[in-house]
Specification:
The chain is mainly alpha-helical. It is built from three helices and two strands; from the N terminus they run E-E-H-H-H. The chain is elongated and about 55 Å long.
């Protein structure tokens, strides 16, 4: 029996999706597609970071206290790390 992965997609479904992708695009195109997707994700991440930086600069110029948002971001990051640690230990046990 297949173990469900995060996002409620089983490993059988992932294998089927990969099979269809290989049929549609061909095995030789897969690395190029993955590379393009990686570049797109990196560009999106950089744009998001630029927007965040610009918003922080604007808030600081207006005299808005951004300490609360920094504290919330730190707490969110701590929770993410805890979840990643927990998920990592669960994955190793499977």
């Amino acid at each position: 029996m297949c173990q469900p992965l995060p996002f409620f997609i089983s490993s059988t479904e992932i294998v089927f999706i990969l099979f269809v992708v290989i049929l549609v695009f061909g095995a030789d195109k897969i690395p190029d597609i993955a590379k393009g997707m990686g570049k797109g994700m990196r560009t999106l991440k950089n744009a998001t970071n630029d927007i965040k930086t610009e918003i922080q600069r604007s808030a600081e110029k207006q005299g808005i206290n951004t300490d609360l948002t920094k504290e919330i971001s730190n707490e969110i990051n701590k929770v993410k790390e805890d979840i990643d640690d927990l998920a990592g230990s669960v994955r190793r046990k499977l």
